[in-house]
Design goal:
The complex is a heterodimer of chains A (115) and B (111). Chain A is mainly beta and 115 residues long. Chain A has no helices and eleven strands. In chain A, β5 and β6 form a beta hairpin. By secondary structure, chain B is mainly β. In chain B, 0% of the residues lie in helices and 55% in strands.
């Protein structure tokens, strides 16, 4: 069966520090991968998605970037964090087919607090 | 613009009663819909999905109804249990493998 792992579960970082959040998927090949941010009590905002190694689509202009160095690895980064980067970051995967009627499956997220 | 929204942000239900969570969508081209459950501190968990060629689909204690005429989606939970307390999100497929999520309904089960 497929599993998705995110780490760390929680992170406290000072303003201006760099960020690297990692997400890996097991049990599937060539998945579509997604990074979301969820503000407290709010819905999910799509940040990036990827349909293959090295292929990244950005949804909103921001202080963050994403990379996919391996088929089942998705990394969210920042060179200098802002206070507004605080939030709950979720990684998700879906089956990599041309059919968009596929559910996305989420990891358990990283709670990021910027001080 | 296209949006997915929920009629009520909160729902309080007595344990053992049935719950109904509603969702409105505006994109008439959407042909796939999903319900997710999110417990505190965790990621959203897939509950059930439905394609636009159906108007009803049943799972274990859950039923999703789709009314394409009025662009309305609902999730029914039978015999609600304390473990059903969570935030529930509806989502619709958009462009390029993306999903559009509603803001969520918080369900609280009273003992």
């Amino acid at each position: 069966s497929q599993t998705i792992h995110q780490w760390p579960a929680t992170l406290v970082q000072p303003v201006g520090s760099p960020l690297s959040l990692e997400c890996t998927v097991e049990g599937t090949s060539n998945p579509n991968l997604y990074w979301y941010r969820q503000a407290a009590g709010r819905g999910l905002q799509l940040l990036f998605y990827s349909v293959g190694i090295g292929q990244i689509s950005s949804e909103v202009p921001q202080n963050l970037s994403a990379s996919r160095p391996q088929d089942r690895q998705f990394i969210l980064s920042s060179k200098k964090l802002l206070l507004s980067d605080s939030g709950f970051y979720l990684c998700a995967w879906s089956v990599g087919t041309a059919n968009s009627n596929q559910p996305q499956h989420f990891g358990d997220g990283t709670r990021l607090s910027i001080l | 613009g296209e949006s997915v929204g929920l009629h009520l942000p909160t729902l309080s239900v007595q344990e053992g009663d049935n719950s109904i969570i509603n969702c409105a969508y505006s994109n008439s081209a959407s042909d796939y819909f999903i319900w997710y459950k999110q417990e505190s501190g965790k990621g959203p968990q897939f509950i059930i999905d439905i394609r636009s060629n159906m108007d009803k689909r049943q799972g274990q204690r859950v039923t999703v109804l789709l009314n394409k005429t009025v662009k309305h989606l609902s999730l029914q939970i039978a015999a609600t249990q304390p473990g059903d307390s969570a935030v529930y999100f509806c989502a619709e497929n958009g462009h390029d493998y993306k999903l559009s999520f509603g803001a969520g309904t918080t369900v609280t089960v009273r003992a």
